[in-house]
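We close this part of the discussion by returning to an individual protein. Part of our work consisted of pairing the sequence of a single chain with a tokenised description of its backbone. The amino acid sequence and the backbone structure tokens for this protein are reproduced below.
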Amino acid sequence: MKIVILYHPQSDHGRIVEEYVHDFTARNPEVAMEVLSVDTKDGANLAELYDIVSYPSMLALKENRELVKSWEGLPLPLMNDVAYFTFT
């Protein structure tokens, strides 16, 4: 399972997302989160693919890129809720 975060780095929520990723990876060093700006081509394509319109957004994806769970907007989900999807 893979966790992807889509956000706008230069927005009000940019720092919130960066602190969340820092804290999450400190608690779960074996889990890699992919952080993408929706201002990039890859980020915009991923947001379009999964119909994401609210930021920040988190996606729990299987290895075949099948969407398992998504969270959109603030507040960000509890870290335990996100961690659950990394170990299933």
